Amino acid sequence: MNINSEYINEIIQNGETLSVEFKSDLTGLSDSALVTAIVGLTNTEGGYLLLGVEDNGNVTGLHKKHQNTYGLSGLVASRTVPCLNIKSQIIEIDGVNIAVITVPKANGIIATSDGLIQHRRLKADGTPESIPFHPHDFMQRQSSLQVIDPSAIAMQDISADQLDPLQRQRLRNAIKRYGGDNSLSNLDDDQLDGALQLVVEKNGERHPTLTGLLLLGTPELLKHHLPSHEVAFQVLSGTSVKVNEFFKRPLLETFEEVELLFRARVNEEEIDIGLFRTSIPDYNRQAFREAFVNALVHRDYHRLGMVQVRLDDTGLTISSAGGFVEGVNIKNLLVVSPRSRNPLLADVMKRIGLAERTGRGIDRIFEGMLRYGRPAPDYSMSDNSTVSVFMSNASADIKFVRMIIEQEEKTGDMPIDSLIVLSRLRDERRLTTSDFITSIQKSETQVRSILEKLTETGLIEARSQGRGRSYMLSSRVYDQLGEQIAYVRQIGIGGIQQEQMLIQLLEVKGSIKRADVMELCNITQDQAFKLLAKLRKKGLLEMHGNSRASYYTLK
């Protein structure tokens, strides 16, 4: 990155973030305060410390003792454990000098030589602050960096003999019910515990791992040794709470109880497609399962909080304690390589059959919404301490569902990328290649390839060429959706006159009424009558019937 005054000015204009910190140097910032601020940055995302800038972004310049940053790298290296290497340079902004200190992101945990460990977080108002590392933060940080696996740690205060054998039988039943790893079926209890690393041996004694405790522990053991484990299921109608259940039980038992509560509130509508009847639920069960299992598997069990499942008038929200795992964020959810805060627990859930074995459960969540013509799942309420997904209970678009299923009968399951494109075009009508990059989360070249394939299958159409090239649903799809008028209107946006638009509509629909003309051209009843009369006079249209029942076709 080329660091110049223009680039730094832009950073200052955007204000402080988790990776940008301003430090005043009017009175000469002390070495200890400077090193502490740098430690907070490196233990978070790394980034820039701008010395000589006030918290409000005012550039006030460097104190005379910092006019030369020679030796600053050595100072920071000597005052941090392990040694931290930073880069610094002087840049002139608004006629005064500031120091731009580039701080790398640490691969572990960095402390000052005095033993102080800091990291940064966002306050409730969205502004950043540096705070001390607490014991549970160590585990969170190391887990996020995938240095350790918290779910594989042995619980040495618990003996394997204290585990609940009924939960082990529940696990065996789950493997059969959910189509898990068949090789586990013939193992005895000790072999099963060993194969799934539910129990490990330490100093000649057998102890459960955190995963073993979560799956096989009694409620008493969980309450005493893992008080942060809790799941809430709530149903709200307006401001009234209809259901408010809390669970501090082993994971599989909790999953089964919550799924039963959820399934009881799912309504389905059946439609005929060809020779088959297809169910259209108001909430997709597979999307719920993946989202709920993700919340159980990827939550931070060393952070206070709970997994919450809430149904209200607007939809379903599932949230869990702990932010996204290192390297995962809202902008790359669909494409980032699978990773987990609790790798062992995630692996066990896959082998049981509860979690997507490919690690692409997020695709199932998106598919469970988009294929029914509903909005994509919304992760925007997630932050550094919580992952939250909202799934709207908007009514399914039956015609859209029918179109998707009929297409899949010809070409196989539709990729999530294609569903995203079709869903956005259904809602937004006409979009360019660049419009899809953020939602598909792939490069422009990859997005262009996806669009061309959909064009070849006849599901979308390209309009114009070059930079002005845009895409819309094809006439065939608009016809399947029963929206021929909307199709012709989209074509008309390109400059076709009213008469040409009417001809286009007749070619697509076969016949039209006066109301169709009013809707298509956004004109009054009298204007529609005159337009139709004009086309009849030209010999282009033929009128059938009389009065209000009349309709028109091409001659």
Give the CA-based shape. flat
The assigned structural class equals alpha+beta
Count helical runs.
21
C-alpha Rg (nearest Å)? 30 Å
Helix content: 25-40%
Q: What's the arrangement of secondary structure elements?
A:
Elements: H1 5-14, E1 20-23, H2 31-42, E2 47-51, H3 72-78, E3 80-81, E4 87-93, E5 96-103, E6 111-112, E7 118-122, E8 128-132, H4 135-144, H5 165-177, H6 189-195, E9 199-202, E10 205-208, H7 210-216, H8 219-225, E11 231-237, E12 240-247, H9 251-263, E13 268-273, E14 276-281, H10 285-298, E15 307-311, E16 315-321, H11 343-352, H12 361-370, E17 386-392, H13 398-411, H14 416-428, H15 433-440, H16 444-456, E18 460-463, E19 470-473, H17 475-480, H18 484-492, H19 498-509, H20 514-521, H21 525-537, E20 541-544, E21 551-554
Parallel strand pairs: 1-2, 11-15
Antiparallel strand pairs: 2-5, 3-6, 4-5, 7-8, 9-10, 11-12, 13-14, 15-16, 16-17, 18-19, 20-21
